[in-house]
Amino acid sequence: MHQEESFPPRPLRGVRAVYARQAGCPADFADITVDFEPWEEGIEFEVHADLRTRGFVAPGESAEYQKAVAAGVQEELTALEARTTVAVATVLRAVGIHEVDSRAGSFHHAGRLAVRQALVLAYGPLPRPKRHAKSGAARKRRPA
To answer: Is residue 140 part of a domain?
Structure first.
């Protein structure tokens, strides 16, 4: 994003983010699908009335996971450059839950990932840093 822009520039629907980390037991797992809609300036978060849920979750946990997604989305969007006006309604459409490995922190990360996915969809991937050529001394081959 180079000049003053507004996020999202157009509706971005069906943005899926999966956070899965297996670094021991328990692991982390969250799978979400969200829509990013142009809205009034600021960040609005909603849960779709017909939220699709894959996997078993207790009612109290569901609300906790939804709040965690909202917090992750909020954090990632408030970290955008000052030249970007955030005017978005984020609608949580679906969640995938693992009975053992899902927890609020997993959904928080998934919310952040969803924003990153949406930014790539809206503006393209960030440029990769260029590698610097090594100096002549560093390029010398070792003797065989």
So the answer is: no
